[in-house]
What we know:
The protein has 189 residues and is of the alpha+beta class. The protein has helices spanning 7-14, 30-40, 59-76, 81-89, 108-128, 139-142, 144-151, 180-183; strands at residues 23-24, 52-58, 92-98, 132-136, 158-168. Strands 1, 2, 3, 4 and 5 form a five-stranded antiparallel β-sheet that branches. The two termini are 24 Å apart. The relative contact order is 0.21.
Amino acid sequence: MTDHPNPVLQFMLTRRSRPAKLLRAPGPDRAALEQMLQAAARVPDHGKLEPWRFIVLEHPAGARVAGTIMDYAQSKGLDGEKPARAFADSPLCVAVIASPKPSEKIPELEQTLSVGAVCLGLVNAALATGWGANWLTGWPAHDHALMVQVLGLAPQEWVAGFIHMGTAEATPPDRPRPDMSAITEWVHA
């Protein structure tokens, strides 16, 4: 153990997502985003199945998705304003798609956990490089018919998260964090 400050640990202890509604242009360019995607894909992936894929929605595509969500919501009697606004306002959004692979050795649950790690890894990569980022889902992410229409998902695929990125207007105040003593059990023997 060392007494030297660890910048990675300090980042993890102080990281805060930036609300999507506070993100403005510009967003990361392709080269910066490719590096973030590469970092996000460095997660535990038992069996090297890569049970995820990325769909990058640049601003014009995000605006199209927003319109499709609004039309779909109206046809189903749902409130589409809030999720549509996130896409309309977002300079860049990466849809992280869970794409489980058949495997006798690696259960689908482990693949799902890996996909969640990818989402957090992408948010952290964006924050660590100075961008604002937020991991959202909402009802559109869970409506498979809509996501087939919008993103062309295969039958076994689903949206693990929409990672919105851009320039953060402001740093939000920190939120209450877990009481570690209430959620940690130490077993000595």
